[in-house]
Amino acid sequence: MATHTHFSFSCPCHFGLERTLRFELSKIGAENISTENGRVNFQGDALVLAKANLCLTTAERVLLKLGEFSAYTFEELFQGMRKIPLEQFIGKDDAFPVKGHALDSKLHSVPDCQSILKKAAVERLKAAYHMNWFSEAGANHPIRFQIRNNHAVIYLDTTGVGLHKRGYRRNANAAPIKETLAAGIVDLAQVRSDSVVCDPFCGSGTLLIEAVFKAMRIAPGLHRRFLAETWAQIPTSVWEKAREEAVSNIRRDAAFTAIGSDIDPEAIALTEENCRRAGVMPRVRLEQMDVADFHPQAGAITICNPPYGERMLDIERSQSLYRIMGQVFPADRNHPCAIITPDVDFKLHFGKEADKRRKLYNGMIACQLFQYFGKNESH
């Protein structure tokens, strides 16, 4: 894989975070960026591939696009795959498992599609390497396919374990928020390098940690490895350069502080453990406290994922909690807050009309992000 050759890529993301991810991509040198629901497409070289894996906070993974074609029949699927120059990316000893999904298409059997695409890949590589058998004992190059409306897109997964796995959260309490979604909420809450961020339901600390990462410009993938690092087709120097740049971008002089509290002492211990693992504990203050005693300082941004009835508390207790939050959260220009919840009746109990509402998904759960920043205040 030539270092300066441009490739097409695609990053899946949470629905509602496409614009945030698009902006992140523009900052790492991606070109020809375009968005669709739950996905952002772009172009770049091998260095952009490395930076995307290391630095993107809201992407789920980085897929290298190999080709696309119409596929109404299994024959079209086979022939379309066989035309892709897989040998440019997959060595003769490399593993190339095939996985994917099909939606609203004539070819709807995923196992059959997997089998045919694998056979086509083998036939292509047989011709390229003049071999009849592949050990697949080398570096893993997973092929991912997506068939929608009879249109097939074939990718290589450059990431491996999803990008939300930062490495700091070995343990989590009930109903944790996904790291990539937490990063998106932090971005939408406009956290800056000199912000103070509070989370009165800190749980396992995810929102606090992602806020520190954002404020200090710490690349979330800095302390983990990616599948494409094992590929002979990408020089090690590319990854070294991307990591050096990511380290140099860290704002160690940021005046940022995160303040976490929770009524559960185990949640406080868990948050502290995860903050230490993430290397951000010097920026975090923790306190065991009931939300009824929460009083944010002026200028602090409150970001939280309060417990929800169907998951952790019964619905009445959740709604009682929202009423308490409405009493202790000023939720105004001097005390902005961003609250994510799947409860469609949240505002009735919180008692305040949000300045902005955004639809987001936490896993498969449809949620609303209620943002309060005093836009509707008279002044």
Give an overview of the whole structure.
The protein is α/β, with parallel strands linked by helices and 379 residues long. It has helices at residues 18-27, 46-55, 74-82, 110-129, 179-188, 206-216, 236-248, 265-278, 315-328, 346-350, and strands spanning 7-12, 31-36, 39-44, 63-70, 98-103, 143-148, 151-157, 196-199, 257-262, 284-288, 301-304, 337-341, 356-362, 365-372. The strands form two sheets. Strands 2-3-1-4-7-6-5 form a seven-stranded mixed β-sheet. α3 (74-82) packs parallel to α4 and α5 packs across α6. The protein is elongated and about 70 Å long. The model has no long low-confidence stretch (mean pLDDT 94).
Topology:
Elements: E1 7-12, H1 18-27, E2 31-36, E3 39-44, H2 46-55, E4 63-70, H3 74-82, E5 98-103, H4 110-129, E6 143-148, E7 151-157, H5 179-188, E8 196-199, H6 206-216, H7 236-248, E9 257-262, H8 265-278, E10 284-288, E11 301-304, H9 315-328, E12 337-341, H10 346-350, E13 356-362, E14 365-372
Parallel strand pairs: 5-6, 8-9, 8-11, 9-10, 11-12
Antiparallel strand pairs: 1-3, 1-4, 2-3, 4-7, 6-7, 12-14, 13-14
Helix pairs in contact: 2-7, 3-4, 5-6
Rg to the nearest angstrom? Answer: 23 Å
Distinct helical segment count:
10
Largest sheet: 7 strands, mixed
Overall average pLDDT: 94
Oligomer: single chain
The helix/strand order is EHEEHEHEHEEHEHHEHEEHEHEE
Shape: elongated
Distance between the termini: 59 Å
Category from helices, strands and their pairing = alpha/beta
Binned, the helix content reads: 25-40%
Biggest sheet: strands side by side, in what order? 2-3-1-4-7-6-5
Range of strand content: 15-25%
Question: Spans with pLDDT under 50 lasting ≥5 residues?
Answer: none
Care to count the β-strands?
Answer: 14
